[in-house]
Amino acid sequence: MTPLLVLPSLLCHVLLSAATVCVLWGDFELPVFMNNGDFTIGGIFPMHYRVEMPHTDYKLQPMSAQCKGFDPRAFRWAQAMRLAVEEINNRTDLLPNHMLGYKIYDSCSTPITAQKAVLQVLNGQETAHGAMCSGASSLLAVVGESGSSQSIVLSRTLQPFRVSMISYFSTCSCLSNRAKYPTFFRVVPNDDYQVKAIARLLKHFGWKWIGVVTEDHDYGRFALQGLKRELENTDICLAYHEMIPKDYSVEKVLKILDVMRTSSAKVIVVFSVEGEFYPFLKEFMNQNITGIQWIASEAWVTASVLAESYPLLDGTIGFAIRKGRIPRLRDYLLTVDPWRYPSNPMVHELWEALYGCSTSPASGSSQLPTCTGNETIRDQYSSYMNTSSPRVTYNVYKAVYAIAHSLHGLINCKPGKGPFQNSSCSNQIDVQPWQLQHYLQEVSFSIADEKINFDEKGNAIPYYDLINWQRDANGQIQFVTMHHQSVKIDTSVIFYNKQVLVSVCSDSCPPGYRKAVRQGKPLCCFDCVPCDSDSVDCISCPDDFWSNLNGTQCIPKVVEFLSHDAMGMTLTVIAVAGACLTLLVLAVFFHFRNTPIVRLNNSELSFFILLSLTLCFLCALVFIGEPTSWSCMLRHTAFSITFSLCISCILGKTLVVLGAFTATRPGNDLMKWLGPRQQRVIIFSCTLVQVVICAAWLISAPPFPLRNTQYQRSKIILECSEGSELAFWCVLGYIGLLACLCFVLAFLARKLPGNFNEAKYITFSMLIFCAVWLAFIPAYVSSPGKFTVAVEIFAILASAFGLLFCLFAPKCYIILLKPDKNTKLNLIVRFEPVLLPHCGIYNVHIMYILRKINL
């Protein structure tokens, strides 16, 4: 840069620095409680249940969100933090010569308000002059939050600054993800442990049909996922899952209650914080729904406000986090009053909630009477003074001490033995939050005979108490601890609202009956049907037996196959009659082999067709009787080869007819390729392909007899398994290919002169053949049994009769009944009128054709 440009730049920088001022553009809310110290920690507590968002018209600056529904229980948590800080500051063995400060804010149990609170903790409220604003607070750690959704927002907000957060009540398993939440710690077990315990509890009491109600936050969603995962391999089913709407609506709640009322599930697991569940229960009580066993999550299982306000919750069971002992807690809570904190509006709200009176009637903001000093604490708000068995309050207490012990380890670091780069220690005058995080991860101390430390994911040691809500003789609700740590439950001390509820979708089946699952329903919902060999809860009979109608005895199954009964004998008679009829036609053709009509139809091919048809009729007999290894192998192979031979002969005849009548002049050499030798080659080649397929089938996976006991439980069906379905369909497909080719060629030649042309008869025969076998396929694949075998035999016989009658009936009619038409002259005379209107060359063509076909 040139010297001429340096001076203006410096002047601009100086002027800009002098003019820059950090200014608060919005209202800065003061902490609920604040105390200065050498090290500052933050505290975020849901001192109100909900937030009312202001109306926004986008014309004026919107007002701040209004927190509603004061929560004395959460206010007690905040006081526990203050008490812990005071105790630490008065100790000489923990953080000596250092003072711990705090700033406590209200999150109003809402993520957006919680984020605003943590930003206020981070930024501070001071204004500063200079090029950079320097009014940021030296925050080292935060104690918070209770709700998992709020903790997710706070952890993500604090993460860029590497400020650690210790939650006292956020149990969502999602927060154990160290990649997403590297600065998050908690002194409460995550929900992975709780859902395991709840699953064991349900199994212990035999509650197999349950409903689940969750809040519309991450806590509820992840808890539900964990519970479903634990119930996957059990006999416990989920009847329904309903979610309490985030934006509370009476209409939506009524829909949920209607599901609960109509469901047969009598056990309901609720994953919700106290603030979300409280308004839901109001509407629940109005609907007068009874007979429910509640399973509470740790978020509300010790909520005194709910227990005292709603008797319908009596008998509730749930897992509570570990309770502890906090000395001087009750005395310290009594020191918080409006006269000691006259300018703290939260303390005034506490007083109004506890005593139902106002300490400042002149403001006109309250309709409550003025306090006289003689009021007693209202029962529904006595949770503020409930210090007999602190649980969440104890967690807050532990979280503050965890931070203090971490700071103590950081301060007492010996130079050259530190955990940071080059074995250095932190600068005690300027401690960075990331340095404190290292000591938090490694911290280990004892408090009230409990050892406190964190695992690699920032979780505390899991510990639960099994709590049962019981009402004593005075009508006061008691949280009775049934058990500690493991879920070994003493059922003798459990108090139920009326009696032990049964919550199943279907009652157990009596002896002689089994479970039949209802279509579209969970496995817990079933019908009881008489026992059989596939029973779920019955003793299975052997494969050859099935149970009687009462399900008390195994009786032999009926063996079924197509035997020589009435149906089998009928099919046998038809098959033999077809074979005999074919042989009779063969005899007729042989006797009249020198007549024109036999010679016209190529006598050699006709004899081949009649012989193959005879075999087709006889192969149907192999399908009748009990299946054996040989009969199973012979059934489809014999059938396929004989029909392939028959269709090949018909194909050869069709080619001869088509070739003869498509020759355009006598000198055409096409017919020399369709002589007797070539015809035999065509027949042999087409049949050989089928023989090769059948040989490969028999070598690789031959058909075999099978005892089918699965299709009908009362019967044993003796059938032939194909061995290879691919080979079976290849055999049928090849026959179909030959038939289709023959049909197409015959169809092309159907309009040639009828006296010399049997193409139209072949067309009809192939049409019948294809129709029969296309109809057979659905029947064959639909079900096993003797009727399927009978259908296959019928298809064989029907197609064989179709070929016999279509191809030979017209010729036998002329040979036997119209011998006067079986002459060469008659055939020529009837042929000539068809062609004479055309050019004369065809008359020569006629004589050529007659010579070629030996007429």
From TrEMBL:
Any one GO molecular-function label of the UniProt entry: G protein-coupled receptor activity
Gene3D superfamilies for this protein: 3.40.50.2300, GPCR, family 3, nine cysteines domain
One Pfam family here: NCD3G
InterPro entries: ANF_lig-bd_rcpt, GPCR_3, GPCR_3_9-Cys_dom, GPCR_3_9-Cys_sf, GPCR_3_C, GPCR_3_Ca_sens_rcpt-rel, GPCR_3_CS, GPCR_3_vmron_rcpt_2
Range of residues in the leader sequence: 1-19
Sequence intervals crossing the membrane: 566-592, 604-625, 637-661, 681-706, 726-749, 761-781, 793-816
Membrane topology, record value: Multi-pass membrane protein
Stretches assigned to the G-protein coupled receptors family 3 profile domain: 567-823
Origin superkingdom: Eukaryota
UniProtKB keywords: Cell membrane, G-protein coupled receptor, Glycoprotein, Membrane, Receptor, Signal, Transducer, Transmembrane, Transmembrane helix
Compartments (UniProt record): Cell membrane
Protein name: G-protein coupled receptors family 3 profile domain-containing protein
Organism name: Denticeps clupeoides
